[in-house]
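step 4 of 6: structure.
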Amino acid sequence: MKFCTKCGQGSAPTMMLCASCGNREFSDTQNVNQKNSPHIKPHHTAPKRVGSSSSSYISSGDPAGHVPRFFAYIIDIIIVTIFCAIVGAILGFLSPTSFSNQSSTELISSSISIVIVTLYFALLHSGSKGATFGKQICNIQLVNENGIIPFWLAVVRAILPTILSIGFVVVLGLLISPLFIAFDGKGDFNVIILVLFSIIFLIVMFSPYWIIFTNDHRKSMIDMICKTRVVKK
Amino acid sequence: MTVDYVNNPNQRTPCVLVLDASYSMSSRTKSGKTRIEHLNEGLHALEDALKSDPIALTRVQISIVIVGGPNSQAELLMDWTDANHFTAFDLKPAGNTPLAEGLQLGLELAEEGKNTILSNGVSLTRPWMIVISDGDPTSSASAWKEATLATREAETNNKVEIFPIAVEGASIEKMNQISHKPCAQLSGMKFKELFVWISDSMSKYAQSRPGDNITLPNTDPWRDVGL
């Protein structure tokens, strides 16, 4: 019997790496983290032998398909919309005169919606199932290389699409606004530019997601930034 | 010593197990256990079955390649070991399913094991390679094509006998590309029954001589026959 120097797991002599943690260094005695001890040297290191063209990508699971991801997204949108509508109705019913004007009502309502959406995705993604209700129904989940993601990362991942989309749209607006100024008051041109702008707006708005069609691991821009993946359960 | 040709010059049957330890193996089944827990129980059942069979104990040799796992790659987990020295262990699921790389490594191991046995003056039966996976391979399309061409060619040239076994949810289409034989589907999570069958089959095969017609034990205890 030999012991992993990293986790202390016992292994048979022919084991080339620790089945538990993947470490290749073993010792004859059960000492964890021997590499950090000046007194005890690792007994031996198993030679590395890996598949010839193994993937350099280090993360978890088999990627979820586009269709389950799409339906999970639609289900989640429906659920959070219902939540927001209920909360909005309750607030409106409880204090119909407490808001001084329509704009402050809209501001508070939008803030509450953002909080609800963020909490919905963050709490469920960092929960024991690692999946929103939509993802649970579609049998997929969100993970990183360590499994279920922590709450703080789930919050970042929930907020990031909005920030990115707003950022992209603002940049697009700045780029396109000179066209509006140049063709101001020229009838049909304005309509054409408006239609073009709307199409480009939609493409840019959802640009954090288009990228899932361009890589083998079906990672969106958000997944790439947060180092997360949506995988099959 | 884990491979002993001096004290045990019996004919050998080498068997490479290519096991999927990717993250998808962490999903829970109806029994409340995860797939990998079932697979680990199967490995312990394999140890018990090998050690309770005097033929298998002296003639079967095993090596194990994991696909996925803590390092998220296809790698040699256990080098060639005589059945009497085989000790089961518990795998932990993580990472992708680079099955193409696992197949290539399995073929290399089978060839290497065969050459080592012959160089020690011991006879052997054709090596086996048993591939167990529950997911779509995450290897690139070109790596997959190359690996499946290599496995089929090795089978055609009688270099190795390949048994692809799909756990529920696996891509049968992909698994069918590994061998000329159709892929067998595991019924539920009957890993224990599967590994006992592997032990019994290898024991029977290990007693064979060149040209013998072998009838392997019935696969009904673990196989999904689509009823």
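step 5 of 6: annotate
 - Residues 99-119 of chain B form the longest helix (21 residues).
 - The interface with chain A takes residues 2, 22-24, 26-27, 66, 69-81, 85-87, 89-92, 94-98, 100-102, 104-105, 135-136, 138-140, 143, 169 of chain B (CB under 8 Å).
step 6 of 6: archive
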